[in-house]
Fold:
Amino acid sequence: MELKEKVAQALTQVIDPETSLDVMRMRLVTDLNVTDDGVVSLTFIPSSPVCPLGFQLAISIQEAIKRVEGVKDIKIDVKNFVYAEQVKMALEQNK
Structure:
């Protein structure tokens, strides 16, 4: 299995508690890209601009990717969320 497939599979384990659906099925993760040297980049778009679970889901996404063997770095962009900059800072501190 390729690293990108492993990352995508790991993301299916991140469940939105309000919907009981994973972030991939909900299409909250877009632009998933994985380089040959293990750098994962993606865009996280919470289900609403004021999603109360935005922080929690972003951290859960990052943690799920961290557990995938072969991942060296994770870059998560956050869009369409009022606290996008705060989430990005929290993700950077959680690396």
